[in-house]
Design a protein that fits this description.
The protein contains ten helices and 13 strands. It has one domain: Alpha-Beta Barrel (TIM Barrel), CATH 3.20.20.80.
């Protein structure tokens, strides 16, 4: 859901060979990303993920990003022996991230599909040394796809885009992420139909009500069972989940309890949920929260406190109890 170009997903370890747990890396106020990566490494990190935005990479038909993140990732993560979870965010929650000239077209217009294939080819050619673990084509697409027609158009686009990406880099499971409530709302059928050609169901889940108040941690097992039942035999990738430590019903104790409840539930659901990503490493500063409020068009103070305290560590780099618990779990497995 989040726009940070440096937000990377790092696996802490696995509860079993079939299941990987990850954490999204956000920087502390020390502005030393490598040191933050080392925090994850000391907890047993083995894979990373990178989110890229289509409209930030293309100038007309030319690949010309301000920063060439795929090349940077390719030069850095193989040396860390880390695989990559790649997200090509053609949609990012509330934003259509296609280049501006394409946004008026239906997603399944041949010009959109052709332009995406050219973009994906540029990105994937720069990641030739990197082990791609999964690829997501769109992040929380349900935020933009609000009609049955738009879902149908995206479904057609995804089918063609997936085939092209799979031909370039075969082997990695390919899907697109949606928020969990997309499978419970009026477009549930459309979301399921669009996932027909996906290799797994990619779901982002945060235990919040509509006003961004946190829900009880012990409810996670019920939610996971609902995801498994909905997926009807396909694997579920829990591509984002987290719990704030402050504001609107949250606390550090409840944050710790959430991860304890989550890991306990995952222990008996290893085959059905092989990948879970935790959001995120460090709390976010006020200036970033102001950006997010504008980006998502939300002024609710509970939204800011939720985003601002999702970190497993403070913005100044201090461990919260949840992170200490995670380290202890992985150092004893």
């Amino acid at each position: 859901m989040f726009r940070l170009l440096t937000a990377l997903f790092l696996a802490l370890a696995s509860l079993a060979p079939a299941q990987t747990i990850g954490i999204a890396i956000t920087e502390s106020n020390a502005n030393n990303y490598d040191a933050d990566v080392n925090q994850a490494l000391r907890a047993g990190a083995t894979i990373t993920s990178l989110t890229l935005f289509w409209d930030e990479a293309m100038q007309g038909n030319t690949y010309a990003p301000e920063l060439d993140w795929p090349s940077i990732a390719n030069s850095y993560y193989p040396s860390k022996n880390m695989g990559l979870v790649l997200s090509l965010a053609v949609i990012d929650t509330v934003a259509d991230r296609r280049p501006e000239a394409l946004r008026a077209l239906p997603f399944d217009d041949p010009r959109v599909i052709s332009a995406f294939i050219a973009y994906a080819t540029e990105v994937l050619s720069r990641l030739e040394d990197t082990n791609l673990v999964t690829i997501s084509i769109g992040n929380e697409v349900d935020g933009v796809l609000t009609t049955a027609q738009s879902w149908d158009e995206f479904s057609n686009f995804f089918k063609a885009a997936k085939a092209a990406v799979q031909a370039i880099r075969p082997g990695a499971p390919i899907g697109f992420t949606t928020q969990w409530h997309a499978f419970q709302g009026p477009h549930r059928t459309s979301a399921l139909e669009a996932n027909t050609t996906a290799d797994a169901i990619f779901i982002n889940y945060y235990p919040l009500d509509s006003g961004f108040h946190v829900l009880p941690p012990e409810g996670i097992a019920t939610q996971l069972d609902g995801m498994i039942a909905m997926a009807a035999g396909k694997p579920v990738f829990l591509t984002e989940t987290g719990y704030p430590s402050g504001g609107c019903g949250a606390s550090e104790a409840l944050q710790t309890q959430y991860f304890q409840e989550l890991f306990s539930a995952l222990e008996t659901r290893k085959a059905e949920i092989p990948l879970t990503m935790l959001v995120w490493l460090h709390d976010r500063p006020a200036e970033e929260l102001a950006f997010y409020n504008e980006y998502y068009g939300v002024s609710n103070p509970c939204f800011s406190s939720y985003l601002g305290t999702l970190g497993l560590r403070s913005h100044t780099g201090q461990n919260k109890p949840a992170f200490t618990w995670l380290i202890q779990q992985y150092q004893t497995h």
